[in-house]
Each structure stands twice: as structure tokens, then as C-alpha cells.
Amino acid sequence: MTDERMWGSGKIWAARLVLLAVFFVFWEWAANSKLVDPILIGRPTGIVQYLWQEVFVTQSLLSDFYWSMGGTVIAFVLGSVSGVLVGMLFVTSPTTEAVFNPIFTALNAMPRLALAPLFIIWFGLGLGSKVAVGVSLTFFIVLTSTVAGGRGVNPDHITLARTLGASESQIFRKFVLPSAVPVIFNGLRLGLVFALLGVIGAELFASEHGLGQTLSVLAASFKTDGVFGIIFLLSMIGVGISWGMTSLENRLLRWR
Amino acid sequence: MNIAMNPTQTKASAGTVAKPAPSSIIFDKVSVVFETAKLTAVSEFSLNIAPGEFVSIVGPSGCGKTTLLNFAAGLLPSSAGRGTMLVNGKPPVTGSHDVAYMLARDALAPWRTALGNAELGTEVRGVPAEKRRARALDLLEKVGLKGFEDAYPKALSQGMRQRVALARTFSLDSPILLMDEPFGALDAQTKLQLEDVLLSLWQRERRTVLFITHDLSEAVSMSDRVIVMSSRPGRIIADVPITLGRPRSVRALQKEAHYHELYSQVWSRLEEGLSQ
User: Fold this and answer.
1) Residues A121 and A245 in one domain
2) Residue A172: is its pLDDT beyond 60?
3) Contact across the interface for A165 and B73, Cβ inside 8 Å
4) What residues in B contact A154, CB-CB < 8 Å?
5) In a designed cystine with A137, which of A188, A198, A217, B165 is the match (CB 3.0 to 4.6 A)?
6) Do A234 and A131 fall within a single domain?
7) What is the tally of structural domains in chain A?
8) What is the pLDDT of residues A2-37, one digit of tens each?
9) Where are the alpha helices (DSSP H) in A60-126?
């Protein structure tokens, strides 16, 4: 049974590799034979060469990577902590929510990347403006999921808590908060991806450092191999983030 | 093993049954009216339940039996109730430590293990950690869940979950237990098993139980008295003493003639009430 399943997943992996190999070989051939201009699509061998050179030889991409990831982590921490705190405030005080809700809805409706030029004027070309865009995205995502999670408490738990004589703070700590955690976690996972999006997006506009800034320089000088190389790196980072959050969730929320 | 109880609240240590004078729960001409819905749920309901007595209320759905229980638990707005209601000599208050309440659904916290759920009630009521842990472990063993202490509710069957809820309820040292159809969602076999578990827990301490059910056989097999209610607005139409010996086994009763006589007696009274 297990043998069969392993054999099955081995076949699936083999099929994936063959498919990818065929795709890259065709891409390389299309560029070399000028079926499509290499300026438009680059070359797989050129992309590998670029990444090898910039990651392992000159290591110039490493410092960009650290700048972008640093900004992402700071934006995520600030945005999610404030999102959870404000969300909890809304759950415990519906009046506060009633006051702020329409304002926040309007702010959240703004295309945040359009604020990037403004943030660059306010916070400069450094990390500050990138973090600001990331926070402006992460905060609302985490806020929304925290409020949804806090509202989703099982009414039976509240009845039980009341007959036990639980205080408001006990109801919150022992029932509302733990039952909200899975929903908040979904928000955090999405929030981290959006923090990365905000930081990279802001770097594309104007920046001193970062993968987004390098990407925009490469694109402006038609170095297509480099553009693809960085896009590949960014998607690897995204996959890594999702995977990390999922394994963290599985560990913390074993009871689900 | 006996559960340590607050001495002032203990009316019976295991084995001996003392009978203090005051009633444990008193309903005196209690009516419950929900003004907004213009609904009289219960009308002039009077009932005295002695300490240590196991009383069931049966009646058609919508007769207000759960409303009465919620009134005793202090879960109704004070404006809804008329008449006098005393629980352990005091008007009902939400969260009173005199009362342990058990819901129809198990209300387990899915993020807590069986042990964590069994000590949830005592934790909220401020019982010291070591004491509540010992009590929860003892009760989990008594409800037949030894070895499942670290299991999360998702891994437990319906019957096992309700056993955890029983352990949570009996961990509290409240002298009065209010139970709202706690076995209503279980299949027939599991139900019989859990009724026996409940009786074995109750027989050790003889706390006062007010048990709501629509299941006549459940009421007859477990109770000292069965109160039969009419359909809305709920009134008492019969108060039947159940003259079966203690300790009992619900499963053994199924084959006993006297049990079936009592059952048909209660059933005919309920039938009268339904046809009125």
C-alpha cells in the first residue's frame, strides 16, 4: 500500500520534472532560434548564469535580499501586531468598531501601492517608506480576520462561561481568544505575503536597496535574464513563506 | 474515592443521606413571560425539590421546561420571571457557584484536551491548579476515559465528548446540578451507557439534580420524581414518584416489570396533557 503510494508520488514527480524540462528546452530553443526575440523572453541558461553570478560570485543580490526581507519582516510585525490589537479592541467594544469601521473601510479601499510615492516623500528612499506600504496592507488584512475570528465564538461556550460565573476578561481569554486563533492565523499568512508585496512594490518605485529596486533597474536596461532571475527568486521567497506559515500553523494548532 | 466538597455545601457524604429541612430548589407560582415575543412560556409553576433529590421534568417540546431550567441558572432577564424562585435559598444569579449547568451539546473547547476540558469549570471558578487537576483526572477515570486525558475533542466520539462534559460538570462542587437534555443528541445505546455513568456519579454524592428531557424512559429510569408538563403555556399535570430502588442500573431496569408499569403510568399522564 505505502509502496504503491510512494511509487505513485514518484511517478508524479517524474512527470513534473519532464514537463518542466520540456518547457525550458523549448524556451531556450525559441530564444536561440530567434523565434521570439531574447530581449523579450531571455534565456533559461542566461537566467541561471545571472543568478549564479549575482548570488554566489559577486553576492550583490544577497544584500538586496536582506534589505527586502528585513523590510518585509518589520512591516509584517508592525502590521500584524497592530491589526490583532485593534481587532481585539473592536471585538470587545462594538461602539469603537461602529465609529472606526467606515473610516477603515474607506482606507482599505485605497489602492495602497498608489500611496507609495507619498510614503517616499514622507519617509525617504530608505526602509521607512517600504515598511509603511507593507504595514498599510498587512494591518487591514489581519484586522479583518481578527474581528471575524473574535465574532465567531461558539454561543454554547458563552452560555457555559456565564453559568460558571466567568468574568468578562475570563470569557475573553479562555473562550473568545483561543477560538479566534485559527482565523487570525489565516490572516497572518496572507498578511505576510502582502507585506512582501508592499515592500517589493514600493522598491519598484524608488529605492536605495532591495530586490524590487534591482528588478526595476534591470528592466529599464532590458536585462531580461536578470528580470526573470529576480522574479524567480521572489516566487521562491513566496513559496518559502507559505510553507513556513503552514508548518507553524500545523504545529501550533494541532487540535484542529 | 470521594470528591472533596465544601463542607457547608455537603449534605451527604458517600453512603449516608442526611435530609436538611430547606428545599434545594423552590419554584413558587413561577410564570415566565417574554414581553417582546408576547409569549407566556410557563404559567404558575410550583415545585419543591429537596436536597439530594433527582427530579426530571418531561413534556412536549415548547412546554417551557428548558425555560424553567434557564431561570434557575439565572440565564433569563430578570424582567421575564414572575413569582418566587429560590435556588439553595437564594434568588437565581447567573454564574452562582451553587449551580453546575450542563448543556444539551457538549460545549467542549476544541483547543483543550479532554483533561483541559474537564478542568475548565473549576479553572474558571478559581480552584487551585493541583486540586482541580486531581479532581479532573479522578472524574475522567470514573466516566471511563482513563487513557484519553491528552486526546483533543476532534478525536473523541459523541459519547466520549459527553463523558468529558460530565466530568467537567461533576468537577464543580456545586450542590445543585441543572441538566438540559444532556444526552439528547446521542444514539440509544450510548445514551443508556451515559445514563448509568451519570447515576454512578450522582449516587456517590447525592447532589440535587434537576434534569430536563423529552425522553420518558430516561426520566423514569434515573429520577426520584418525574414532573409531567402540559404544552404551552407549561403547567404541571402530574408529579409521579418513582418507587424504584437505589442504586439502580438503567440497563438492568430495561427488563424490570415495575419500571415498565411506572413508564406506562407517566406516559398516560403525558398523553392526557397532550390531548388537552
Assistant:
1) yes
2) yes
3) no
4) 107
5) A198
6) yes
7) 2
8) 556 666 788 899 999 999 999 999 999 999 998 888
9) 60-92, 94-109, 116-123
B194-226 pLDDT, tens per residue? 999 999 999 888 899 999 998 899 999 999 999
Residues A62 and A26 in one domain: no
Say if residue A85 is in the same domain as residue A209: yes
- Which grid cell sits at A203? 522598491
Residues A18 and A95 reside in one and the same domain = no
Query: Based on the domain organization, do A29 and A48 belong to the same domain?
Result: no
Contact between B124 and A166 using a beta-carbon 8 Å cutoff:
yes
Query: What is the mean predicted confidence (pLDDT) over A160-171?
Result: 92
Burial class (CB in 10 A: 0-12, 13-18, 19+), B40: middle
Residue A131 confidence (pLDDT): 95
CA of B75 to nearest chain A CA: how many angstroms apart? Answer: 8
pLDDT given at position A2: 53
**What is the value of pTM for the model shown?**
0.80
Residue span of the structural domain in which A1 resides = 1-36
A41 interface with B at CB cutoff 8 Å: no
Query: At CA B159, angle to CA B153 and CA B160, rounded to 5?
Result: 45
CA distance B172 to B126: 11
Facing residue for B107 by CB, picked from A157, A178, A181: A157
Kindly state whether residues A27 and A135 are assigned to the same domain. Answer: no
The pLDDT assigned to B90 comes to 86
